[in-house]
Structure formats: C-alpha cells, structure tokens
Specification:
With 405 residues, the chain is an alpha/beta fold. Helices cover 37% and strands 25% of the residues. The protein binds cytidine-5'-monophosphate.
C-alpha cells in the first residue's frame, strides 16, 4: 500500500522512526513528510534511510513532479504521527504552508492522526475543538495515551505506541482487494425517453444502489465503468473521485444500450442496475405539444430492446451478467417467484430483486434485496446501500467460483 507518514515537531518523532520501520517491513511503500520543526528532532537522513525514499519538507522541491499534490493523490493511507497541538490546529484550519499541509488537502485517502503533547495542551478547549472538527471530517484519532511525559510530568498526552498506531491505521483501510484485475461495467439511474423537446417518460430511480455497487467494486480493486442515466452529482460524488471509476453519462435507452455494449465488450462482469424504460415514444415531436391544438393526447409507445437480455445472449465465456428487478410484490414469496422467473427469462447469471412501492426502494438510503441464480436464492441482504452493494458483489464472486467448478 502507498502510505504517507507525516511527522510534526514533537519529541515523539523518534518513535515514528520505529513506526515507519514497521510499515516498511510489512511491505508497504512509505513516503515520509516531516515538517521543518520535525527535522530538529529527527534528521532527513534517518527518514530517507528508513523509508528508502527521498524526503523533502518543501512544496518548492521537485516542482516538475507537482509533488505538493502528487503524494496526497497517490496515498491510500495517510498517518500523522506525532501530531502536535500546533499541527492539529493547522489541519483543522486547512492550512497548506508546507508539503504536509498541501498533501493533507490533496488526499482522499483515510487520515489517521496520533496526537502527542503535554496534558494541559491536550485538555485545552482549542485543541479539543480542533480534534472535534477533524473527527467530524472523518479523520481517525489514535491516542494520546496516558503516562509519563517528557517534562517528568504524567498524564494524557503521550503518543500511542507505534505498534498500536500501525494496527489502528491499517484497520481503517478497506483491505478487501478481491476484485483486483476484474473489469466491471455498471449501469445506474433511470432513462428518459423524450416526448417533445421539454417532456419525457421517466422513472423515480435515484441511481444510489448502482453508484454504491460501482464504488464498492472499485474499492475492492476492480476497474469500473459506470454508465449513469440522470443521476444527481451528489450521488456520484465519491465514485467520480475514485481513480478506478470511469463515469459515462447517458439519457435515453438507445444511448444506454450503446454505452453498455461498449463497456461490456471489455468487461468481466456486467451489472445492469439502471431502471430502463420499457417503452419509447413512437414519434417524438420536434415542437412542444400544446393542449390547445388537440382534443386529448394519445401517445404511441414502442417497446425498447431489453438491453440486459441482449448482453446476456451475446456474452463471452466467463463473463458474468447481473440484472436487477424492482418489483411491487406483496409478499416475500411472490418476490422470490418473480425473481426466479425473470432471471431465467432474461438469461442472466444473477438477478437482484428488491421490493419497491410508493415509499420503499427508490431514493432511500437503505435497501433490502434477494439475489437469485439458477440454483435459487443465493443471498439476501439488507442495510445501507453500500452494504447491500458488497453483498451483491460477494454473491457474484461466489457464483463465478461455482461456475468454474
Ligand atoms: O423486465 P424488467 O424491466 O423488470 O427488468 C429489469 C432489469 O432489466 C434491470 O436489470 C434493467 O436494467 C434491465 N432492462 C434492460 N432493458 C430494458 C428494460 C430493463 O436491460 N429495456
């Protein structure tokens, strides 16, 4: 893993030498960024020797490499140890007057901070407010421990032991990489079929579940193409910042079909979570339809192609196709029966069924699904859409392993 270790100017910096050594010995690619003050405690040579990489404190070194953001972007984990009261205040304020500051602003990796200072400084409301701000922002705080401090005093403020920091830091990183090497194509959102230049036939799909599947797959190592039809930017925010997710925006069924055909040509796994219109308007009006011109309105609707059935019929050996079905079933048994029927009818490997109604399914943060294969129900999951996404991917891997047997 690519790990950045920030070291700020406290006496506990000497303990971070051991911390870096533990990470390097465990096979991680460790890049140390000391602050100028930290170098008064432990010198550059030590950090370079122990991390086996060049070390700099300044944003003005290696400018051609755009080092002030490059390390933060590449980092999969950032640890700041020790973090002084001053450095916590700088982090809380978002100051970027050195390489560690710019790196912390540039990263989207988990950040783990190990504070170290005298007890009074730790207890000060300013420090506590900064810690609260950082926690709210998702920063993980490890320690400080209670014990002897450098001034001969004792109390909370000692930096946590390096072994403890390493264990806590590695625990916050999603360690699953069971989809590494796979290419996954996911569709999400809801198509819109034009009626005239201002109106369309659409649906209430928010795209949240498909976006969660795409993000989960990328977090687990897959290279993902996410084909999104009318999904709010906020729903796509995390996926759009993920280095392994490529987002393709589409609007109607024909565009979705083309984008998925392109993505599926390269994909090992195709997951059709989009709500696709079953019909399009036969003749789209070039001009806005006016009620004054007519006595009522009859639209001729033409069936759209079943995209996922087409992808399943054309699939390469070893490619896994997953469809979704949103059903307004009254009972679990009815949902199960419809899911099994629909999987067979579409010729897909797996079908993920969830119940929808006026108040369930679409747009909600939580979901509850059944996953069926030719063997019957192979998984059930409920909870946050991210948890459901991981369960769907687990079922997909289990089905692939089963097929290889
Ligand atoms: O038949 P139904 O619309 O319930 O099937 C839902 C599944 O089929 C979803 O995976 C959806 O993306 C896919 N679908 C499709 N093309 C259509 C309609 C649905 O691929 N025209």
């Amino acid at each position: 893993m690519f790990i950045v270790v920030g070291v700020t100017g406290g006496i506990a910096a000497y303990k971070s030498v051991h911390l870096v050594r533990l990470l390097v010995t465990a096979g991680h690619d460790v890049h140390v960024i000391p602050t100028q003050d930290a170098l008064r405690f432990v010198g550059l040579t030590t950090w370079e020797a122990i991390s086996r990489h060049p070390v700099t404190t300044s944003v003005h070194d290696d400018v051609a490499e755009v080092r002030h953001v490059a390390l933060g972007r590449r980092a999969e984990l950032v640890i700041v140890a020790p973090a002084t009261a001053n450095s916590l205040a700088k982090m809380a304020a978002g100051l970027a007057d050195d390489l560690l500051g710019t790196t912390l602003l540039a990263t989207s990796a988990p950040v783990v901070v190990a504070p170290a200072m005298h007890s009074e400084m730790w207890a000060h409301p300013a420090t506590q407010a900064n810690i609260a701000t950082l926690r709210d922002r998702g920063v993980h705080i490890v320690g400080p421990a209670d014990g002897p401090l450098t001034g001969g005093d004792s109390g909370p403020g000692r930096m946590a032991e390096p072994e403890h920091i390493v264990a806590a830091a590695l625990a916050v990183v999603p360690e699953r990489d069971d989809l590494t090497g796979l290419r996954v194509a996911v569709s999400t959102g809801g198509t819109r079929e034009p009626i005239d230049p201002v109106r369309f036939l659409g649906n209430r799909s928010s795209g949240r579940q498909g976006a969660a599947v795409a993000l989960a797959a990328a977090d687990r190592g897959a290279a993902v193409t996410l084909v999104a039809a009318h999904v709010d930017d906020r729903v796509l925010d995390a996926a759009s910042r993920h280095p392994r997710v490529d987002i393709v925006r589409v609007s109607d069924v024909a565009q979705l079909q083309r984008a998925m055909a392109d993505a599926a040509a390269e994909a090992d796994v195709v997951i059709m979570a989009a709500a696709v219109s079953d019909f399009r308007v036969g003749t789209v009006s070039d001009e806005k339809l006016h009620k004054a011109d007519r006595d009522g309105l009859v639209l001729e609707l033409v069936e759209t192609p079943d995209i996922v059935a087409g992808l399943a019929a054309a699939r390469r050996p070893g490619q896994t196709i997953v469809a979704f079905a949103a059903e307004t079933a009254d009972t679990d048994e009815a949902l199960r029966r419809r899911a099994l029927d629909k999987r067979a009818r579409k010729g897909v490997d797996l079908l993920v069924a969830n119940r929808v109604g006026w108040h369930e399914g679409f747009g909600a943060a939580d979901n509850a699904v059944l996953v069926v294969s030719a063997r019957g129900v192979i998984a059930e999951a409920s909870g946050a859409k991210r948890e459901v996404a991981d369960a769907i991917l687990d079922a997909m891997l289990a089905a692939q392993a089963d097929a290889e047997r």
